[in-house]
Amino acid sequence: MDYTPYPRHDVLCIDMRSFYASVECMKRGLDPHTALLAVVGDPNRSGSIVLAASPALKRKHGISNVSRYFELPNDANLIIASAHMGNYLSISLEITKLMMRFVPKEAIHIYSVDELWLTIDGLERLYGSVKQIAKKVQASIREQFGIESVIGIGDNKFLAKVVMDIHAKKASDGISECRYENVSDLLWPIPVEKIWGIGSRMKHHLNRMGIRTLGDLARYSKPYLKKRFGVIGEQLYWHAWGIDLSPVIGNFTKMEQKGYGHGVTLLRDYTKGEINACLLDLCEEACQRARKDGKEGRTIHLSIGYSSEHGTGFSRSTSIDTPTNDTWEMYQVCLQLFQQFYTEKCHIRKASVTLTNLEDEVGTQLSLFDQRVQQKQLAYAVDHIRERFGSTAILRASSYTPGGIAVDRGKKIGGHYE
Predict the structure, then answer these.
(1) Do β-strands 37-40 and 50-53 pair in parallel, antiparallel, or remain unpaired?
(2) Of the options 3.40.630.30, 1.10.150.20, 3.30.450.20, 3.90.640.10, the CATH number for the domain spanning 185-240
């Protein structure tokens, strides 16, 4: 591969090690390297997920972020911490502000609460080599927040991310670098399922084609990959060669919205009679976000997951003639889908709704007796109250019934209590 036509940058991908657990350790004055601490979503539920484990807990007991509360060891030194998402988001924001001491905000791309990219082109005269800059970034995070980090260095965001995931986490200094010329040595031997962007379903498809490593993918026919998987197939091919043309400088926060949806995994089995209030709350959240962005949608999706003893559930959608962002209209369509495809006497454990096929919100020709204008004005008034006084400042009466979820969700950030 001749890499001459492709852009070369100095990109860092930074991941905060055991971020939630490290924050909880620092709040308690503990060393994350020695303290046995687990952050649990809801300690009142034995099946709750372990959101993070301190490095010491991972080493000693093999606890991972997919473990359950009941799987934690019976260790006298074990500390259980409830998740405090508001606190984690606040510290994540402070870390981002710290990065602005090195680069302008346009050179920062936030990937998640504990991971981000920095584009450090041209900083060598100020801070030294790229690796020296990575070490300075690590040291600044450690000194200010007591949190360790690992850093991948690459010519683009893909290379920086993958070498961070695969190699930096195992490196003694937590830093690893992969340039175009290193792809065949560092990345091609790696199984495809370990590469960022390739999930279990794609792994299954690729394995059936005889593609097991990234090198296999790089040597495969690009036209056939594109024919089989469309644009995604072509992107997989270029990524296998380490090529990523996504921007490394600019406004990364504004992305085209494809749909507005909300879903929930229920804490108990819901009956047919209880799910209505839950669906109404979900439609309210989805439509409120659409109204905020001035969007309406023509296609409404409903997904229902049954309890394990009743099978998987169903996922269906339908399109309507006039685009909408009205909660009640979306809810009525969801009810029709539910009544049509629900299997009687099945208990419900998951529900989600989505509004897609979006258009800009514009005025519509209404009849003299149409109430949509008043409904829209009322919806925007309620949105304004919630924006000013909080998401639970004004709710529908159904939200306070046993099936409603809005009251409880209003107490959470990112699905967890603050």
Answers:
(1) antiparallel
(2) 1.10.150.20
- Catalytic residue numbers read 115
Place of tokens 């003893």: 309
First to last CA, the chain: 50
DSSP per residue, 268-309: EEEPTTTHHHHHHHHHHHHHHHHHHTTEEEEEEEEEEEE-GG
Domain range 260-417, CATH class = alpha beta
Integer CA distances (angstroms), 276 to 165, 270, 281, 407, in order: 42, 10, 9, 15
- Give per-residue pLDDT as tens, 182-204: 999 999 999 999 999 898 889 99
- The reported pTM is 0.70
Domain ranges of the chain: 185-240, 260-417
Q: How far apart are CA 14 and CA 303, in angstroms?
A: 35
Higher-scoring residue by pLDDT: 65, 55: 55
Q: DSSP H helical segments within 310-371, as ranges?
A: 327-341
Q: pLDDT tens, 66-92?
A: 788 898 999 999 999 998 888 899 999
